[in-house]
Structures are given as C-alpha cells and as structure tokens.
Amino acid sequence: VRHCNPEIDTIFEVGGQDMKFTSFTGDGTVKEAKMNYSCQAGSGQTLENMADVINLNVENSLQQAALKADRVPVIDSTCGVFMEMDENRLIAEGFSKEEIAAAIVRGTAASYYFKFVGGSQHAGDKCSAQGGPPLGKAFLAALAQVTEKQIEAYPHREMFGAWGQALDIIENIKQLEAQGKSCESAFRGWDLVDMPFEKRRVSCKELFGEKSCGVRDCQLEVFSIEEDEIITGGFCPRGNSESAKKPKTNYVEKYHKIYEKHFKKQGCLLGELSSLQIDKQETVTVGIKRSTATLG
C-alpha cells in the first residue's frame, strides 16, 4: 500500500479468517503489527455467516442493502457468537433486511476496530483498508464511521499481500544484481497449468508406515506435481512438508531415531522381554513407559 501512497501510516486489513493491523512511523518503519490468532469476530467469515442468515451475498447484495438502510440498529460487536444472536433478535423484532444488513456490516467493522485494533490510540492519520471485506463500499463506509477517519481504498486491495511480496522480491533481486550476484527464479512458468497434477487423501500410517506415530493416524492430503510431492494436514511436521526437491529437516523422525538408538543400547523393546533369561531372585526389573512425555 505504501507503494501506492508513501504517506499511509495505518493499514486495516480484514481477511476471511484473519485480521491484521499495521502502523508505521514517518520513515516507513513498522511501528506496530499484529494478527489475530483465535477469535474471528470482525473477520470476513463472521460477515459471511451473518449475511447467509438473511440470504445476501457478502460481495454484492449485502453491501447494496446496507447502503439503502434508513437507520442502523446496534448489535453486540464483542463476539461473533453474540453478533449472530443479535442478528436473530433484529429479525424477530421486525427490522428490514436493509437495516439488518447495515447492522451486521457496521458491527463487523466495529468489532475489528475496537476489539482487535484497540481504538483510536493505535491508528494514525492516513489510513488504508485492504483484504476481501473492504472491497465493499458499505464496509468501507462503516469502517470510516467507527474510526472517524478517512479510509483510502486502492484497486486490487484484496491482493495487496501477494502484491507486496512480489515487490519485496523485486527489491531483493535488484540488491543481489547490484552486488554482482545472480538470482534464479523458482517460478515454473505458465506451463504449470499443463503439468500432470494429482491430489489424494491418505492416512499417515499408509504413507509413512512404521515411521507413523500410530496414535492419531491423521488424514493427510498429498499433492503431486511432476516430481514434486507436497504433504499437508495432520498434527505433526509430517503433515507440513515442503517440495520434495527441498525437504526440511523432519525433527519428529530425527527424535525417534535418537530415541530408539539409546533405548536399545540401555534396555530392550517391549516385544523382547519374553525372550530374556532373567533370574528374578537376583535381579530387580525397572520398567520405562514408552508413552506421553517419554515419547514426546
């Protein structure tokens, strides 16, 4: 956004599931930056859930209906659940669809600004909004009303995250070239659309065999593009792999190898106990349980 306007000192960013807030000092240094990690009240998903109740579309019909409202009823904006309960109350009290649309749009904007951002003490003077929900004129109007600030909205603001990343990469390439270094792109090219692609869903045990912990037996999604294989899902690093050409260290596997090495050296496996010749009168047996904290 500062590529579009270097004077912007505050960014309000609202996504489907996440919310972000960034403020800058005069020289462009990040002053404050935060992102939600739990409650989604004020996010696009909350807005969509509430729009579905009155059969409106977030991108179009909800925005149009909200702008036609003669009055804006107040709903509880402290929690997504309470907001949805209040929406049902407005329906029961006979408010029009336009008024309810205005209430939930303003309620979502208020939840984002007051509950997440923290109010006016965090915002600067030159504010910009980006993300999916700020594409709507009603949401921008509501955000301007609750913040009491002029909100600047630039084209393609729903893609600013990706655009900013691209600009950062270009800057890094220029710096490398200035140092006389070469840079090779990992971009596959537009031929990617014609490359063989496969997606399958398998269990962790089916994919990794004995290396699987066998406790949860997570369901993993495996994406294959030519020779590359990407694994997602699950509760441990096995379900968060990178490209097959650039594998990351699998610390779960590394831990188990070290553990088995020392366990076999100092003791024996459970299945081997019955084969041991032990004089019970002269020997004290100490058992080490292989679960919870012991296994990690």
Automatic annotation (TrEMBL):
* InterPro entries the record matches: ATPase_BadF, ATPase_NBD, Dehydratase_Activator_Redct
Q: Name one Pfam family in it.
A: BcrAD_BadFG
Per the database entry, which stretches of residues form a coiled coil? none
Q: Which residues form the ATPase BadF/BadG/BcrA/BcrD type domain?
A: 9-167
Q: What is this protein called?
A: ATPase BadF/BadG/BcrA/BcrD type domain-containing protein
